[in-house]
Amino acid sequence: DTAVSQTPKYLVTQMGNDKSIKCEQNLGHDTMYWYKQDSKKFLKIMFSYNNKELIINETVPNRFSPKSPDKAHLNLHINSLELGDSAVYFCASSRSTDTQYFGPGTRLTVL
Amino acid sequence: AQSVTQLGSHVSVSEGALVLLRCNYSSSVPPYLFWYVQYPNQGLQLLLKYTTGATLVKGINGFEAEFKKSETSFHLTKPSAHMSDAAEYFCAVSERGYSTLTFGKGTMLLVSP
């Protein structure tokens, strides 16, 4: 059983396009996250949702908009993609402040 | 604010040798500390964590780490490296009661035969 899943695994697109990445967890967790891993492997939190409400929003361009339709899903929509958005995006989930479990990642390449 | 410093972006060991990956943290409140491993093209997997209690914590795959408050360290060790241990290792810290993880820049462990 996949605990935290993300789709797609790879995403190649042109500058200026709009794209979405989906995340689903079947662990019954109440908190979900999006992280960005840059080309140097540095991981940084972008957003955190608890029970469908945004609780953390780091300094991220407003072209990035997370949406949580329910506690099991947290999608990431990106408008007007730029070259610098190329990265691996990880979704994670946890039960409150307990251990975070990560998805397999989505590698986004902007051409 | 909290931060994590991992000394050495790459560590090379021979198979069977001791593995030591260093992690120092900065936190204004008692921390929760984590080590995650990332295999190529995969997500992060929790190796072990320290929250409270015993300062020596054991994790999966024979890894362990010791929380040393006086040294603000949480170094990861394994007595005998295996080829399958080759991966990127991340140390992370969070403040108690908060879920935000702050990661170090990672250490790539290379294991040679």
Task: Tell me what the structure shows.
The complex is a heterodimer of chains A (111) and B (113). By secondary structure, chain A is mostly beta strands. Chain A is built from no helices and 11 strands. In chain A, the strands form 2 sheets. In chain A, strands 2, 4, 5, 6, 9, 10 and 11 form a 7-stranded mixed sheet that branches. In chain A, strands 1-3-8-7 form a 4-stranded antiparallel sheet, with no helix packed on it. By secondary structure, chain B is mainly beta. Chain B contains no helices and 11 strands. Chain B has strands at residues 3-7, 10-14, 19-26, 31-38, 44-50, 56-58, 64-68, 73-78, 87-95, 102-103, 107-112. In chain B, strands 2, 4, 5, 9, 10 and 11 form a 6-stranded mixed sheet that branches. Chain B has a 5-stranded antiparallel sheet with strand order 1-3-8-7-6, with no helix packed on it. In chain B, a hairpin with a 4-residue loop joins strand 7 (64-68) and strand 8 (73-78). The radius of gyration of chain B is 13 Å and the shape is globular. The chains are: A mainly beta (111), B mainly beta (113). The interface between A and B is medium-sized, with 24 and 24 residues.
